[in-house]
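Throughout this review, each integer encodes one residue's backbone shape. One record appears below.

===
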Amino acid sequence: MTRAARPVGPLLLGVRHHGPGSARAVRAALEAARPQAVLIEGPPEGDALLPLAADERMRPPVALLAHAVDDPGQAAFWPMAAFSPEWVAIRWALTHDVPVRFIDLPAANSLAMTQAAEREPDGDGGGEADGTGGAAGEPAPGRSPGHAPIDPIGVLAETAGYDDPERWWEDVVEHRTQGGEAVDPRAPFAALAEAMTALRDVYGDGGHPRDAVREAYMRIQLRKAVKEFGDDVAVVCGAWHVPALGTRTTLAADRALLKGLPKLKAELTWVPWSHRRLARHSGYGAGIDSPGWYGHLFEVADRPIERWMTKVAGLLRDEDRFVSSAHVIEAVRLAETLAAMRGRPLAGLSETTDAIRAVMCEGSDVPLALVRDRLIVGETLGEVPDTAPAVPLQRDLTRQQRMLRLKPEALERELELDLRKDTDAARSRLLHRLRILAVGWGEPATGRGSTGTFRESWRLRWEPELYVQVAEAGTWGTTVLSAATAKAGSQAVSATALAEVTALAERCLLAELPEALPVVMRALADRAALDADVGHLADALPALARTLRYGDVRSTDTAALGEVAAGLAERICVGLPPACTGLDADGAAELRRKVDGVHTAIGLLAGTVPAEGLRERWAAVLHKLAARDTVAGVIRGRSTRLLLDDGRLEEDEAARLMGLALSPGTPPADAAAWIEGFVGGAEGGGMLLVHDERLLGLVDAWLAGVPADTFTDVLPLLRRTFSAYEAGVRRTLGELVRRGPAAGAPAATAAGTAAPGFGPGLDEARADAVVPVLRLLLGLDAEGAEGAENAMEPLGATG
């Protein structure tokens, strides 16, 4: 192949990061020029990792991850997708056995500069972003994004009369092809270089103060390459940097800019990346709006619109939406027509999206949101071979993920675990250990099946940032088990609140950390002995109760925990009544929630702790709380309800207590608080009023008697109470109140009398008539068939 004529000097290929048009143009330019070396914008410490890009197991999107050895949380990413010009240039160089190097500022300096900026009160703390929508290094999550620079692409688009920079870029670069290749391999780069030169003349550094240092380092590396290979060198960098790289400066001037730069020890590796993380809405400084769409444009050589519409149709069909071939044909025609009407060379993302909404989604944005999420943004997660460098903890995690068949996925998914199975139990231990290490791969979720202790539900989603979290956790140990054990022990020693230690004990049990439990137990015993605050004790007890409950499932010795839990429960029973007096509204509401937690915990502890008669002592405490006028109304009402639900309070007594709480002498706000405690925020609170019209009548009569001047004060509290009920319960209550007492029925029921709406007693004849029907439905015998016919007549006649 004859090498194309080219200007004297290095070939500067200014690109837009993550642009398929730029990627195709770079590939065409490299094929035409056949340079002797390729230089890429990126950290030079990554040169040793470049050969891995030729590995077939390396599948983009991937990213170079650099982190400080002494502070792994200080990290930055250099993402690359299949359609990134840098990735295309790297693969071209490796395929053609051409030397390829990174020439940007070393990560050791850029990370140190970011660290120093974060420590300054007015430091920007951001990463190096170039002006073409790209970034030299994306700061790790949690770092300050820095000051917003200008967007050169936006400026050029506005100058050209476009209101959308993405659409301008598509028209000028992405669609500037003929037969799938650029018309002139160097034309896009010459045009962009000229435009960027004009912009830099006007805007200077464009809000990128570090660019002068970065570009000085790149010029020095370019001089070295030219000295080694001659002018036959190609440079792939953000178009914003091209004018600076073409500027003639002295070596001494460039070195002067680099003098005194901070530096730290950094390590680099390849990590998988995702299309979702490439999206602009994820917060990525070099983000693009449509990585999935750009990936499609890069991969598809011909008829991209037709193939895109086919892909969309397949997605919608998978979601049980009717989309035929005719829909695909009409959507393509509409997209092309819209492009012609808007004066665009080819249909772009806006035209295809409008066509999909109109033809396939029937004008609705609901299915279109699915298309945006699954295809336009995309769910692709890259892969990196095992030979890539990694911290020991990451290698252990990867090994366990494979052994347990828990593949990291960018798409969020639900995982149901049965702890009676060895594999599921091991998965649970791994996820709980990662939570202790603050590696947020999985979060507990509410399961759809059984609520028993042998079931667990998780919501899993792997994000590239988790590699940074794993690197940070690597300071605690080389394996997940050792790291989680070490961190749990450290947290137990440093914890200051009793509830923190009890929660930690629960997590250690769930994660099965036997070596950490003794340390946690010593800290728990020390905190429990010194803490006299009943509120703190009440916060701590539920976690201990759950821990003891899970100990049975996971075959863990929890005898020591049982003794501590019994001691806490006893102290709560003694100290709670005095603590419930003299409270304001907020304090009473908070303590009411703690009473709920203690009640549930004591129910779990009964029979599992050394203390005898614990439930009886707790019931006595609730009786005291329900009867004392000095206790806040919301706590008195809640105590009454808990006793009634446990069968430790007769219905007549509950009605008497309600009558006292709602008597005319009680301030309306206190009465409303009692009602909230009794029927609000509790399971079945509304159904209790539905089935006991005596209690409903008391509430109704009280509400009707509230003076007008205080009604508006109690209304928000009542509305909050009753709005928590299901719609069907609220509707039934409304019908009962509107109907009033049933005709001929007593207004209230006493022992042995009928409730409103019911007969005076059981009609045994009608009840017996139902038996044959039930036997027939249950298939108990054939005799039910005869009796069923006879049974229907009296039922129809009387009911």
